[in-house]
Design goal:
Number of helices: 13
Order of helices and strands: HEHEHEHEEHEHEHEHHEHEHEHHE
Mean pLDDT: 89
Shape: globular
Helix content: 40-55%
Radius of gyration: 21 Å
CATH superfamily of the largest domain: Response regulator
CATH topology of the largest domain: Rossmann fold
Number of domains: 2
Strand order of the largest sheet: 7-6-8-9-10-11-12
CATH class of the largest domain: Alpha Beta
Structural class: alpha/beta
Low-confidence stretches: 1-15
CATH architecture of the largest domain: 3-Layer(aba) Sandwich
Number of strands: 12
Largest sheet: 7 strands, mixed
């Protein structure tokens, strides 16, 4: 009897591991790498964790990739196209993408990464999201932007004017995060805003930044920007200005400094949510993950290239200094 049970159990497990799953991955901008091991560290981590959990692309997992190409006006049509394909799970990066997908389906599970899920109408609470959306919020409250601005001021005390590279559609929300810390630190934060996340818009925005002559640049943490992180770092370098970035990935490719949560951990959480749902869990019952640990990273090589001197006190505060 025991041998029969064991054999039956192994047979069921084999059937489960061999079962074909199909998910859709939707990013707001830029191309999604088609080859495993390429693309952003976040996406690499998602696929690595899925493989560890037994979801292997090309074997028992099919991944359909979509990009909004940085144009918010097309997100609704894109979402409807994705939903028509009827994947088992939709991975949606950014609030606007998730909102568009949520408007197109109330039944297909959505695993999302973005800002405040309650404010954006994607969930009723972090502990029990309700509906068909769960995932990861990168929002740690407005305090994180105050901390980024404070670090920038301590590193470069003469900073009195900072340009915030952001999306026009989010500026009213974003500038509220700077209102109090900018007043306390006596730094005027000016929005240098993009209508859409495209290469031509970045070039235009940085041309505007040059005319405004700020003392520093702050880059938005919204996913629309991450697709063009390398271009952004290159444009910042050409400006010759110090910059605070929202993710360490920017610093690893040559950006000056970042204060952020671990993007790799967020990728692992996304993969775990997808895996749970493919195994039968409901998004409504999976708590939304909110990061609690943040790291401050400085790239000294970037500082030297910009002819900037980082005070020793700031270097001592860094969790990591890239030489």
């Amino acid at each position: 009897m025991g041998l029969l049970f064991a054999a039956t159990t192994r047979s069921v497990e084999a059937q489960e591991s061999a079962k074909q799953h199909r998910i859709a991955m939707v990013l707001p901008a830029g191309p999604i790498a088609r080859t495993q091991g390429t693309g952003s560290r976040f996406l690499q981590t998602v696929f690595e964790e899925l493989r560890r959990l037994g979801e292997v692309e090309g074997q028992n997992l099919t991944v359909e990739r979509y990009s909004g190409e940085g144009r918010p006006e097309g997100y609704a049509d894109l979402a409807r196209d994705v939903v028509r394909r009827n994947p088992q799970v939709i991975v949606a990066s950014s609030d606007p993408i998730a909102q568009a997908v949520r408007a197109a389906t109330g039944t297909i599970p959505i695993v999302w990464i973005g800002g405040d899920p309650i404010q954006s109408g994607l969930a009723t609470s972090l502990a029990r999201p309700g509906g068909n959306v769960t995932g990861v919020t990168v929002s740690a409250g407005i305090e994180i932007w105050g901390k980024r601005l404070q670090i920038l001021k301590e590193a470069f005390p003469s900073t009195s004017k900072a340009a915030f590279l952001g999306m026009r559609m989010w500026w009213e929300v974003d500038r509220q995060q700077f209102r109090e810390p900018s007043r306390q630190l006596q730094i005027a934060v000016t929005g240098m805003l993009l209508q859409e996340s495209t290469p031509s818009e970045y070039r235009r925005a940085f041309a505007d930044i040059a005319q405004e002559r700020p003392d520093a640049i702050i880059v938005s943490s919204r996913p629309e920007f991450f697709a063009y992180c390398r271009s952004i770092v290159e444009l910042v370098d050409k400006s010759g200005l110090p910059a605070m970035y929202p993710w360490r990935d920017y610093v690893e490719i040559g950006g000056l400094m970042s204060y952020a949560s671990d993007f790799g951990e967020l990728g692992r959480r996304i993969a775990e949510d997808v895996h749970q749902i493919l195994k039968g869990a409901k998004p409504a019952d999976i708590p939304i993950y909110q990061p609690t640990k943040f790291e401050f990273v400085i790239n000294l090589k970037a500082a030297k290239a910009l002819d900037l001197t980082i005070p020793r006190g700031i270097l001592a505060l860094a969790d990591e200094v890239i030489e």
